[in-house]
């Protein structure tokens, strides 16, 4: 966490010589980003064009008419714009908080397990859902919620309740979607936290134990403060995606049920539903660009706030 | 440093290659003695024997037409996306399958966007091809007066059929051929439900309570049973509204499965049912029997209607950036007029995949499973041999069916959506909110229809209807 700016200005060549192995290690990533993210970047201008094909892509791009901000209108023209933005932001804020708090608690708990084999088993079990496709997850959820033969309704009918038509009742879905999202993603952040905890200097704990600190006191005063950089980094990264949603979660898991649209419609599903049949790449680029710009602005703001409080913990 | 330079060099070479392939104009092969090589993209599960058949096809067409072809088959799930990307990036290819039911590689949108070659001139010059295919196919494939593809001559209408469980039809002596309306259907649903104790009508999420209607923008279009020249929302027609109300009633009475909005067509397998429905042609009964694993009889729910989208259910197009437009068209014409070539593409190699049992009848051989492709990927059905078990006059039946189908007044008219894209995007969203639940009787139709109407208006449906109407009026005037 040494701040680069406080150091004497070094030229690129010296920095490179000093960190040559690190540069070489990052080279594949740099090339990948250059080719797949920076090289095609000019195409974001498609969002401002009435794209029409005329020969190859670059030629079509140059000859297409400029559209100004026309392509962005469709996002706000429907009466549902407020609902869509509300859903997108609220779900994401809840997800960002839960995806930091819950994996952190689980990581702290798993770290305290003495039996290494059991600890590994828990980690793997919690990590597996992360690798499942949302389409598969949607069937798992359906097995629980199926109105006729679902697990929940079977239990309900055992107690003499009437079955619930889950796919018709919007009120349950904020909870269902949040549960599914957290269940699916818990493993990833948990592994990051576990790795960070393992890297902490053991001597702090030894000193604390000598002073008679309890487990809780150790966690509160050593582990958590030492983990803040990781926490802050994860938070800033997550904020960048605040205008994006997991399409599978909001489209596949509710089985594209129209009755649930008031709680499952987000920017991504709106763009998908509205544009698939038209295939207009100008409009879809506009949607994507808006998501990126909002994410970028929020990352800069969050980073700025973090910087104000603690310079050394900001990302850039 | 050396390493970085090297890496940069590699990247630079890569980019240069990319730029070259993207910008370079490949020189067309004008040497007439050398056969021209074409690429052709088709949709479907990649077949094990595709290469073998491809080789045999080349052996046949090279001396006869002086062209060779590579058939590229892309799996169902990926074809649409991949071809859409290919078209948007301006890649070169010669022939490809497009149609009205694909999304990003949709026939109408891509023709408008400029992805396809305008072949009007070629078709007009070839009376043999033009005469071989029913004129309504040509009309349906015409966009703003221009042709961009050759439609496969198959069933011209996308009609929804009642599919009846034959065992129960026989048991209760149901006069299924006469049943078209829900009112005619109800007494049989009631009887079978009471006597068999089953939910008689299996409805799935894609069911749309068919009426004779030509949908041109979301659900707006022309009612073929009402005023044929006035644009209207299908959901505002009396016939549709009474149908969804009856559907709700059927759900309440237990005639229709309650989970209709969540199940797909194939979920019918393993259930007990009397009747269900699907979009098909009169010749598809055998396929249904196969996939539904039940012996069935079928009857159409509505009269057959020819619309632009039903006529372009399978269309072969020429890529706009092709280097060999003439040769590509020559092959396309041959596929539709040369029976030997069409049979080879559709059925495989004689003596390997099938054997001939008569002049134009065939029997599958064991290798058949290594090469089964949908015939509409290629062309004219009427040139195909009859499969074992098919009636010898099947093409006559199909031909009559196509000739008898009612043409929509808007056949040949295509809506230019560029002025109302935002509205249509919003309307698509409203439509998807209500489509499944309304059509499957899962919600109260009165409130849902009112809600839908309110939301559609908020999304700008009136503007779309007006635009559609004025474009149609203009087209009608100039096409009298």
UniProtKB/TrEMBL annotation, chain A:
Q: What is the membrane topology noted in the UniProt record heading this document?
A: Multi-pass membrane protein
The subcellular location is: Cell membrane
Check the record and name the SUPFAM superfamilies matching this protein. Answer: MetI-like (SSF161098)
Q: Which UniProt keywords apply?
A: Cell membrane, Membrane, Transmembrane, Transmembrane helix, Transport
Residues annotated as domain ABC transmembrane type-1: 85-302
Name the InterPro entries on file: ABC_transporter_permease, MetI-like, MetI-like_sf
One of this protein's Pfam families, by short name? BPD_transp_1
The residue stretches assigned to a coiled coil in this entry are none
User: What is the superkingdom listed in this entry's lineage?
Assistant: Bacteria
Give TM segment ranges.
21-48, 89-110, 122-145, 182-200, 221-243, 288-306
Q: Which Gene3D superfamilies match?
A: MetI-like
Identify its protein family.
Belongs to the binding-protein-dependent transport system permease family.
Q: What is this protein called?
A: ABC transporter permease
The species is Lapidilactobacillus gannanensis
Lineage start: Bacteria, Bacillati, Bacillota, Bacilli, Lactobacillales
From TrEMBL, chain B:
Instruction: Indicate the secretion signal residues.
Output: 1-21
Q: Where is the DUF3502 domain?
A: 409-477
Keywords of this protein's UniProt record, alphabetized? Signal
Query: Where would you find the membrane-spanning parts of this chain?
Result: none
**Protein's recorded name:** ABC transporter substrate-binding protein
Q: Name the source organism.
A: Lapidilactobacillus gannanensis
């Amino acid at each position: 966490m040494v701040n680069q700016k406080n150091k004497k200005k070094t030229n690129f060549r010296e920095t490179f010589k000093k960190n040559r192995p690190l540069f070489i290690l990052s080279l594949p990533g740099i090339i990948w980003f250059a080719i797949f993210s920076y090289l095609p970047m000019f195409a974001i201008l498609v969002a401002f064009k009435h794209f029409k094909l005329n020969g190859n892509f670059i030629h079509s791009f140059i000859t297409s008419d400029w559209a100004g901000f026309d392509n962005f209108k469709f996002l706000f023209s429907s009466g549902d714009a407020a609902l869509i933005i509300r859903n997108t932001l609220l779900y994401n804020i809840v997800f960002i908080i839960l995806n930091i708090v819950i994996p952190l608690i689980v990581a702290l708990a798993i770290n305290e397990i003495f039996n290494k084999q059991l600890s590994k088993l828990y980690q793997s079990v919690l990590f597996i859902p992360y690798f499942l496709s949302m389409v598969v997850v949607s069937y798992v959820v359906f097995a629980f919620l199926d109105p006729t033969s679902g697990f929940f309704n079977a239990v309900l009918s055992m107690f003499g309740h009437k079955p619930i038509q889950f796919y018709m009742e919007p009120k349950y879905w904020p909870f269902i979607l949040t549960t599914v999202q957290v269940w699916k993603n818990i493993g990833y952040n948990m592994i990051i936290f576990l790795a960070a905890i393992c890297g902490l200097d053991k001597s702090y704990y030894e000193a604390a134990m000598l002073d008679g600190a309890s487990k809780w006191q150790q966690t509160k005063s050593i582990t958590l403060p030492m983990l803040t950089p990781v926490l802050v980094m994860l938070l800033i990264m997550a904020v960048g995606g605040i205008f994006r949603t997991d399409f599978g979660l909001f489209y596949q898991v509710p089985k594209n049920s129209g009755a649930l649209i008031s709680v499952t419609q987000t920017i991504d599903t709106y763009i998908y539903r509205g544009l698939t049949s038209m295939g207009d790449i100008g409009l879809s680029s506009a949607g994507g660009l808006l998501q990126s710009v909002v994410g970028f602005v929020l990352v800069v703001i969050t980073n700025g706030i973090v910087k104000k409080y603690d310079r050394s913990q900001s990302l850039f | 440093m050396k390493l970085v330079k090297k890496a940069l060099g590699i990247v630079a070479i890569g980019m240069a290659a990319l730029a070259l392939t993207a910008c370079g104009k490949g020189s067309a092969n004008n040497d007439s003695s050398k056969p021209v090589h074409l690429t052709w993209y088709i949709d479907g599960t990649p077949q094990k024997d595709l290469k073998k058949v491809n080789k045999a096809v080349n052996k046949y067409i090279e001396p006869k037409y002086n062209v060779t072809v590579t058939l590229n088959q892309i799996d169902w799930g990926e074809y649409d996306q991949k071809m859409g990307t290919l078209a948007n990036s301006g890649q070169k290819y010669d022939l490809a399958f497009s149609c009205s039911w694909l999304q990003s590689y949709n026939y109408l949108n891509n023709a408008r966007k400029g992805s396809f070659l305008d072949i009007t001139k070629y078709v007009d010059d070839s009376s043999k091809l033009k005469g071989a295919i029913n004129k309504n196919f040509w009309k349906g494939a015409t966009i703003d007066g221009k042709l961009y593809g050759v439609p496969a001559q198959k069933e011209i209408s996308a009609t929804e059929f009642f599919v009846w469980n034959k065992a129960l039809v026989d048991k209760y002596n149901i006069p299924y051929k006469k049943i078209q309306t829900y009112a005619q259907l109800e007494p049989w649903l009631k009887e079978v439900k009471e006597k068999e104790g089953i939910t008689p009508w299996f409805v799935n999420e894609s069911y749309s309570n068919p009426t004779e209607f030509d949908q041109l923008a979301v659900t707006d279009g022309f009612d073929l049973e009402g005023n044929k020249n006035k644009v209207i929302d299908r959901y505002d027609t009396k016939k549709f509204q009474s149908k969804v109300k009856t559907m709700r009633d059927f759900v309440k009475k237990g005639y229709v499965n309650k989970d209709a909005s969540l199940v797909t067509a194939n979920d019918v397998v393993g259930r007990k049912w009397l009747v269900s429905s699907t979009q098909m042609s009169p010749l598809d009964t055998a396929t249904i029997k196969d996939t539904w694993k039940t012996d069935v009889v079928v009857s159409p729910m509505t009269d057959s209607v020819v619309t632009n989208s039903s006529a372009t259910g399978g269309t072969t197009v020429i890529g706009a950036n092709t280097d060999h437009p003439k040769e590509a068209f020559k092959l396309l014409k041959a596929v539709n007029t040369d029976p030997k070539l069409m049979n080879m593409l559709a059925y495989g190699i004689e003596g390997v995949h099938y054997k001939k049992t008569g002049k134009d009848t065939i029997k599958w051989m064991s290798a058949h499973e290594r090469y089964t492709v949908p015939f509409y990927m290629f062309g004219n059905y009427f040139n195909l041999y009859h499969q074992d078990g098919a009636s010898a006059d099947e093409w006559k039946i199909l031909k009559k069916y196509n000739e008898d189908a009612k043409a929509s007044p808007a056949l040949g008219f295509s809506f230019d959506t560029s002025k109302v894209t935002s509205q249509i995007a919003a309307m698509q969203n409203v439509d998807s909110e209500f489509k499944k639940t309304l059509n499957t009787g899962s919600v109260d139709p009165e409130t849902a229809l009112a809600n839908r109407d309110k939301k559609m208006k908020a999304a700008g449906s009136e503007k779309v209807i007006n635009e559609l109407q004025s474009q149609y009026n203009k087209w009608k005037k100039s096409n009298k």
